[in-house]
Amino acid sequence: MNLVSANIPTPWLWTLWLLAGALALLIVRRAWWRVLADPRNLHVFLGATVVVLGLWLIKTGIKPGLNFHLLGATALTLMFRPLFALLSIGLLTAGLALWEGEYAAFPVNWLIMGAVPVAIAWGLFRLVERVLPRHLFIYLFVNAFFGAALAILAVGVASTAFAALAGAYTLDYLLDEYLPYYLLMSFAEAFSTGMLMTVMVIYKPEWVATFDDRRYLWGK
């Protein structure tokens, strides 16, 4: 995670910026902006973004561009649905790119740390909605706990593949010294996301757009 500009081949930059631009256009055209027009929703959105920023700043690394930190993408997806989750992560990656001067790394970091985990978290949520009973414990353990673990593992695989294909590091090195740590990160991500979502659906269910008392609690 947090690839640096030096890790990215120059010929790839146009493609990465086009993909990021297409994602930004999708958000602009399809997001329900009237939701954030409500100051209460806007405050929750900005507050959650700041909290995730704090998680990203608590990081460690083994080589330039190979950093480890909690992600928070699954929690953002469950709280705000995918487009606003992508917007939140986009703001984070853009802010860090400006702060660190790694402008060219913005699109790939947004795609890997935003599009990949949000797609996994949202895809799992939609699948669970179709095939499993709507129950509080299923929502928390499958969507929050398992979903968060799966999302960060997907980020690990995606960042490993990108770094190897870009020639930043050898695949053997990444498989031995980088990717295995995501197994450990998955437990931390699952636990932190699961606990956070448990607290919110109990005390602040109105903050979680994918949770509804009538669907998950009434008559259960």
Please characterize this protein's 3D structure:
With 220 residues, this protein is mainly alpha-helical. It has one domain (6-216): Orthogonal Bundle (Arp2/3 complex 21 kDa subunit ARPC3). It is built from 9 helices and 2 strands. Strands 1-2 form a two-stranded antiparallel ribbon. α4 runs parallel beside α6 (136-165). The protein starts with 12 loop residues before the first helix and ends with a helix.
Task: Give the topology.
Layout: H1 13-30, H2 33-37, H3 39-57, E1 60-63, E2 66-68, H4 73-100, H5 106-131, H6 136-165, H7 171-177, H8 181-203, H9 213-216
Antiparallel strand pairs: 1-2
Helix pairs in contact: 1-4, 1-5, 3-4, 4-5, 4-6, 5-6, 6-8
Provide a concise account of the structure shown:
By secondary structure, this protein is mainly alpha-helical. The chain has nine helices and two strands; from the N terminus they run αααββαααααα.
Keywords, please?
220 residues, mainly alpha, 9 helices, 2 strands, 73% helix
Average predicted local confidence, pLDDT: 93
Count of all domains: 1
SSE order = HHHEEHHHHHH
CATH hierarchy class name: Mainly Alpha
Q: Helix proportion of residues, in percent? A: over 70%
CATH-defined fold name? Arp2/3 complex 21 kDa subunit ARPC3
Alpha-carbon distance between the two ends: 40 Å
**What structural class do the secondary elements suggest?**
mainly alpha
Please identify, by name, the CATH architecture.
Orthogonal Bundle
* Biggest sheet character: 2 strands, antiparallel
Rg estimate, integer Å: 17 Å
